Amino acid sequence: MNSRRLITGFSNPTVKHLRSLREKKHRKAAGQFLAEGLRLLTDARESGRLPEILVMASNRDLHPLLSTLESDVLAAGGEVLEMAPDLLAKITGKDNPQAVAGVYAEFDTALSAIDRSAAKIWLVAQALRDPGNLGTMLRTGDAVGAGGLILIDDCADPFSVEAVRASMGAVFTQSIAQARWEDFLPWLRGGAGQLVAASLRDAVPYRGAPYASPCFILVGNESRGLPEEYEMACDLRVTMPMKGRADSLNAAVAGAVLAYEVLAALE
Fold first, then answer.
1. Within a 10 A sphere around the Cβ of 211, how many other Cβ atoms?
2. For the chain, what percent of residues have pLDDT higher than 90?
3. What's the half-sphere exposure (Cβ side, CA atoms, 13 Å) at 225?
4. CA–CA distance from 21 to each of 139, 236, 238, 245 (Å)?
């Protein structure tokens, strides 16, 4: 049954619930996450995902995309809430929030849900701690036509407000899986797949390296990089030239550079 409500008080239980979704433990308990902004929510709708709850600021500008989104949410049995901008700011944690936000059901992030044959490129991140980097990797994956992002060991939450925002909508277009290394490696070896990492250990130049499809591009923690045993388990280790004083690239940047090289090699 669809519904539409006007919410006016900070103490409203719904406001408290939506605010709680900014914290990982509450997201996991509810199985929901927040996304904000008309463009991002429209990308989600075009990817076949509608919010369970659509939240709109009472002073919003009229927009045909928002009207379409509202109609679709109500038709699907979702809930539409209207509230003052300061209430919406409490929910999103931003002083100048977007005029619209959505509450989505978290996706299935089991490795078993990944179809490796669906794409030539997959991104894999180990112990990635920065949600901005995680969102950037999702965005990169979307740009290169990757199938998705596999998060290994203890990574930032892909459903945090910061990661979702940084993904620029790619959280809805990319498959996401979460696993421990000891589960990921047997899964990978159970089918086709080349594991590639940037490394200095027995590495070849990243340009012109023998990439193969499906190619799983592995990047490590922002400060520590990849553990040696993870690197040695790779089928191919490649090195990138560093012409300046810096001895490494940002993890998400390194993943993007490699992804475009692999894309060019496999096209």
1. 22
2. 77
3. 13
4. 22, 40, 40, 42
CATH of the structural domain 111-266, one choice from 3.40.1280.10, 3.40.50.970, 3.40.50.620, 3.40.640.10: 3.40.1280.10
Peptide bond into 214 cis (omega under 30): yes
Local structure of residue 166 (DSSP, 8 states)? H
| Cα dihedral sign, 184-190-194-199 | positive
pLDDT band of 91, cuts 50, 70, 90:
confident
Right CATH for 3-105 from 3.30.70.330, 3.30.1330.30, 2.60.120.560, 3.40.50.410: 3.30.1330.30
Best CA proximity match to 40, nearest among 175, 165, 147: 165
Measured CA to CA, the distance from residue 37 to residue 98 in angstroms comes to 5
Confidence check: pLDDT of 9 > 70:
yes
Residue-level pLDDT at 95: 66
CA–CA separation, 224 vs 128, rounded Å? 10
Residues 76 and 41: their CA atoms lie apart, in Å, by 15
pLDDT band of residue 190 (cuts 50, 70, 90) is: very high
Answer yes or no: is pLDDT of 46 > 80.
Answer: yes
- Using pLDDT thresholds of 50, 70 and 90, give the confidence band for residue 193: very high
Q: Which of 17-26, 60-69, 170-179, 187-196 has the lowest mean pLDDT?
A: 60-69
| Distance between first and last Cα of the chain | 47
